[in-house]
Design a protein that fits this description.
Blueprint (H helix, E strand, L loop, with lengths): L1 H5 L3 H7 L2 H32 L3 H14 L4 H16 L4 H25 L8 H37 L7 H26 L11 H33 L3 H40 L1
């Protein structure tokens, strides 16, 4: 009974044990650290100075509160507010830095996905940058839509209950999660479908996108439960770099889960093609 339960996941565990997979995951995690703050600056500046929508801006800080427990969440929010106010309206440098650092996330992702799908030739650097740029715009738009939906829901509830009504943090987070989880799954679907250097049937990557999206949501609760112990340990070992190391470690775990989703999807597709070839040969 136990063997039957474990057998479907054994190849993924073995995949996680490969040295190259750890190289890919750490490369993705470091690039996430580089792109994380520029992305927040662009999003908050866009809502604050261009859209002039304080509700959407508040939704971004609500998302940070959901993803990062205190005191890390408060540290990021304080520095983000200070940077946006000091920097002023959105600048070309901020946008360029975001594109430059975010593109670095998709290079190791493409190589890892190609390896999982058995693709022997990666895109050229220029083609990878073009595809990555498209994915950055698509994912950024989905994040903005999620933020707008959260803000609209909150404002609608305020209008129904009255301007003086106090909406609980739990209600705000419920609005955020209702909008964010489907958008996260859609982002994963686009990355799984577009990034590998081969034509993939869209229906083959729907299941892994959903599974990985839900798993990443659950990972946030694991992070919240382990954070008190992890914080003490990292502050003791890394001192002022503890928060940076925290983001890298969490990003590494998330990258490993995303890579596992690609491996699982590719393995299912390979098995399906083998069965179809066997039937055709008979």
């Amino acid at each position: 009974m136990l063997k039957r339960l474990v057998r479907p996941y054994a190849p993924t565990v073995l995949y996680w044990m490969e040295t190259e997979v750890h190289v890919y995951a750490f490369s993705i995690a470091v690039n996430v650290l580089l792109a994380f703050f520029p992305f927040l600056i662009v999003m908050v500046s866009l809502c604050h100075y261009i859209l002039h929508w304080r509700g959407a801006e508040a939704a971004i800080f609500l998302a940070l509160q959901d993803y990062f427990p205190e005191p890390l969440g408060g540290f990021i929010q304080r520095n983000l507010r200070s940077t946006v106010e000091h920097q002023g309206p959105l600048t070309f440098v901020s946008v360029f830095l975001l594109f430059f650092t975010a593109n670095g996330i998709f290079i190791p992702l493409e190589v890892a996905f190609n390896r999982a799908w058995g693709v022997t030739k990666n895109r050229t650097f220029l083609r990878n940058q073009v595809v990555s740029l498209g994915l950055i715009f698509a994912c950024g738009a989905l994040v903005l839509i999620s933020t707008v939906l959260t803000s609209v829901n909150r404002e609608a509830l305020t209008e129904i209950l009255g301007p003086n009504a106090k909406i609980s943090v739990f209600t705000n987070l419920a609005f955020f999660k209702a909008a964010a989880l489907p958008m996260s799954i859609l982002m994963l679907f686009l990355v799984y479908w577009i990034l590998p250097n081969r034509d993939l049937p869209p229906k083959r990557v729907i299941a892994p996108a959903i599974l990985v999206g839900v798993t990443l949501e659950l990972l946030k609760y694991v992070n919240g439960l382990t954070w008190p112990w992890l914080r003490i340990k990292l502050e003791r070992e890394y001192g002022p770099f503890a928060y940076s190391v925290t983001i890298i470690l969490w990003s590494f775990l998330a990258a490993m889960i995303i890579l596992a989703g690609a491996e699982w999807s590719a393995r299912r597709q390979t098995l399906r093609e083998s069965q179809e070839n066997l039937i055709d040969s008979q």
